[in-house]
């Protein structure tokens, strides 16, 4: 019995322990089971998956899978990239990188500083992935009509105005807003709007700009070649006679900050209708002395947020008749800017607005990148007697409320040596593709280098420039036109 | 001992059962725990939520929340809709419906059959929500450059060609493909491309069309008013003299099926450069007798998939020089169609292609809708002596491989009574907004009624038409110009 009782007792206490353990375990089973049921109930129907998501889940997974692909930090995979043999889009490598994962660097690669492709902002959008993503349903805005009975998104209009007010770079309250497929489209829309009516008995308007100017003003005006206007050269031809009447009927393109030389500009001709292109008038690319308030102003998403591929720009127009003509142009030519792009831009503007003056301010981010590039470029070029850059003093910026160092979109390079008559060719011989000043009707001694492309582009550019300046110091110029 | 042994034995067998139960329970817990760990590991960081989704989750939830809003089947909520006091976009109601959830029907509402807004396909995209959704990352294609170094998506180009081949409505193998911001933009792009060069010593091209024609050909040509071309009226003026030489230098717009009268058309002028607009040449809106193979053809997403708001169209062009000029026009005017829209269109085309000839074929779906509308409209109008519709016989369609009933996009209405000289006004007095034939330079006795809008639009239209015909039968015409 002793043993038996002992066993019985020990069995009894073991039994209690068993009971306790079993009960706990069964309870835990029940908890897990209930939890499992609760969690998995949305997956009971095939339509409901992924934290309550249904139809958007598949597209979200596709986008994340593509975004997660490894391109070694030197490229991107995009949803609509060219598909390889596996049916999936592959890495699109930055210039000077190649290989399936963009890990192979091309030796002695020529730097491409031609295009004003605003990829310097791409890292910003990767940092704000969740806030800036947009999901399009298959039935999103099939209609021609957007909100308000027209082709414009009322909310996008409102957010553009909010942004200008918050940044303080343009007076919007007394302006009409006209969207276009990039500010590019609005160049001709505004020329049309400011020219005499086709039925009017007026001579064609003279379209002009001041050297150095953005070449598209001329090339687009020449291409459309409407009977109501004509390209009439540069303001230098017309400004000297000084008479106000003589430049009535002129349409003057003004870019401020200017492309290519980044200087702030004002109209030159008194009495002309000015189209003031403020593509670069944002605090990451210039100081903002005051809100712009010209009668006709142009802006573009491209240089604001970096969304060049979206093709979205807008005009701010004081006069109702001019605004209506510009709107009519956009409606008759393309029936309004893509509603897809309008939705995407709305999301982008919301992110920008939500972060203004915070630690994730897009202008602070962009300014840091561009100021750093300008500093590094200047540090190298300051050692050169052969090339020089435009001089930009530090300036007070109303947006940042302090003196700012320069952070220009472009370097306007001058070849100083007498023999370097064609600066574009001089740089090309040194492995740098730039945009010749002659395209802006400036001297061939000037050329434009783009600073706002991807970091890889800038790094290669700085390498080539450094070699170029080093060669000059060591008495052996890699540039073909050098006589040293 | 007996008891003890018995107890011990029973405890032993109970113990075994306990053991078995406990082991099972513990094992089950282990399984649950492992499962829980595996499932919840992605949520360990706040970035990873929702079935492994991270940055796309928030946007997916927003889109689904908006899509789930209740507008009583008579409206939509869109992500970029005008926000109410609660900061959320509200229902945008179909015409003749109002109220916060679009549940209030406007009594005696005027039917709007003016615009060719292709909303009849909206239900198709709701049925294919998961397959047709697209997620845009904030950094999707910031660049000007898309694939292949240009502004065109290589994959979209490929899928457009796949679709034409699969549908059999156009020969693509020997054609260049040029994208535009809607086929609307390509109207002028092609006029430009087919006109003499600006520097050439040639007279301007004469741009013409055959009555009744799509009014934008004239209005857009007049608006751009390039020196290299001019609107030169209708083909009737020129076709009678019959000489081939006399119509050299002519650019003839041909729409097939025609807008407004839906007849298949061929160029009228021998020797002219024809721009053949095949916007409606898809199997839901016409029979397809054979693949189109003209030198210059126009297509648009609007009438193919219903995505009018996306502004995407394309031209198929045989001659390389003409194609290059058209491409240059699009590049210089807008730097290519929005890359956002190009990505969305790619997804849409993939869905269409995946379902061709299946039970979810978009053309079968669209054909069913449009055939049913045409039948119902004809059933009513056949009782009328006052108005008549264009006659369309059943025709063999190569795509469906059978004889098809008509399913036209528009009703081309003729007012038969002598006193109804302005058919637009006659219908307007009966509560129907149509598009007067005079806009196409046809007689005022003709007017166009759009049949491809939303079902609500068609239902209201059919109500008004039924009342109109009933009134005629009962000897009291609601139309203002009736003398009965």
Automatic annotation (TrEMBL), chains A, B:
Domain (Alliinase EGF-like): give its ranges: 54-109
Coiled-coil ranges (or none)? none
Residues forming the Alliinase C-terminal domain are: 111-468
Per its UniProt record, the required cofactor names are:
pyridoxal 5'-phosphate
> Does this entry carry the keyword Membrane?
yes
Gene3D superfamilies for this protein: Aspartate Aminotransferase, domain 1, EGF-like, alliinase, Type I PLP-dependent aspartate aminotransferase-like (Major domain)
Q: Which UniProt keywords apply?
A: Membrane, Pyridoxal phosphate, Transmembrane, Transmembrane helix
Concerning Pfam families, the annotation shows:
Alliinase_C, EGF_alliinase
Q: Which family does it belong to?
A: Belongs to the alliinase family.
Can you say what this protein is called?
A: Os01g0717700 protein
Give the organism the record lists: Oryza sativa subsp. japonica
């Amino acid at each position: 019995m002793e043993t038996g009782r002992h066993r019985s007792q020990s069995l009894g206490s073991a039994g209690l322990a068993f009971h306790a353990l079993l009960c706990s375990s069964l309870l835990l089973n029940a908890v897990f089971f209930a939890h499992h049921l609760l969690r998995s109930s949305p997956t009971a129907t095939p339509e409901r998956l992924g934290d309550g998501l249904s139809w958007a889940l598949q597209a979200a997974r596709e986008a994340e899978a593509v975004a997660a692909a490894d391109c070694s930090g030197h490229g991107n995979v995009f949803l609509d990239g060219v598909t390889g043999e596996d049916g999936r889009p592959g890495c699109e490598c930055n210039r000077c990188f190649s290989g399936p994962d963009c890990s192979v660097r091309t030796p002695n690669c020529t730097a491409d500083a031609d295009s004003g492709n605003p990829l310097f902002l791409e890292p910003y959008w990767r940092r704000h992935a969740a806030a800036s993503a947009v999901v399009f349903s298959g039935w999103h805005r099939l209609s021609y009509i957007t909100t308000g009975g027209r082709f414009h998104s009322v909310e996008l209009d409102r957010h553009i105005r909010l942004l200008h007010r918050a940044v303080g770079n343009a007076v919007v309250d007394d302006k009409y807003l006209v969207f276009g497929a990039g500010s590019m489209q609005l160049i001709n829309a505004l020329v049309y709007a400011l020219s005499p009516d086709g039925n009017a008995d007026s001579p064609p308007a003279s379209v002009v700009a001041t050297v150095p100017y953005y070449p598209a003003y001329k090339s687009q005006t020449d291409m459309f070649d409407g009977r109501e206007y004509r390209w009439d050269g540069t303001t230098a031809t017309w400004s000297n006679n000084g008479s106000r009447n003589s430049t009535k009927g002129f349409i003057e393109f003004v870019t401020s900050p200017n492309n290519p030389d980044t200087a702030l500009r004002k109209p030159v001709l008194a009495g002309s209708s000015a189209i003031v292109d403020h593509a670069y008038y944002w605090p990451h690319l210039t100081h903002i002395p005051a809100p712009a308030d010209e009668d006709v102003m142009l802006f573009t998403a491209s240089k604001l947020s970096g969304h060049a591929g979206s093709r979205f720009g807008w005009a701010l127009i004081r006069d109702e008749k001019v605004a209506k003509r510009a709107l009519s142009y956009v409606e008759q030519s393309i029936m309004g800017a893509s509603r897809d792009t309008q939705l995407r831009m709305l999301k982008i503007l919301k992110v920008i607005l939500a972060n203004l003056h915070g630690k994730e301010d897009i202008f602070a981010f962009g300014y840091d990148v561009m100021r750093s590039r300008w500093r590094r470029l200047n540090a190298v070029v300051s050692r050169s007697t052969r090339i020089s850059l435009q001089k930009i003093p530090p300036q007070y910026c109303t947006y940042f409320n302090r003196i700012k160092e320069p952070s220009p979109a472009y370097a306007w390079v001058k070849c100083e040596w007498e023999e370097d008559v064609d600066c574009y060719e001089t740089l090309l011989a040194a492995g740098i593709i730039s945009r010749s000043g002659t395209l802006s009707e400036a001297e061939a001694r000037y050329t434009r280098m783009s600073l706002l492309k991807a970091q890889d582009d800038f790094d290669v550019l700085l390498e080539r420039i450094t070699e170029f300046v080093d060669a000059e110091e060591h008495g052996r110029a890699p540039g073909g036109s050098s006589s040293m």
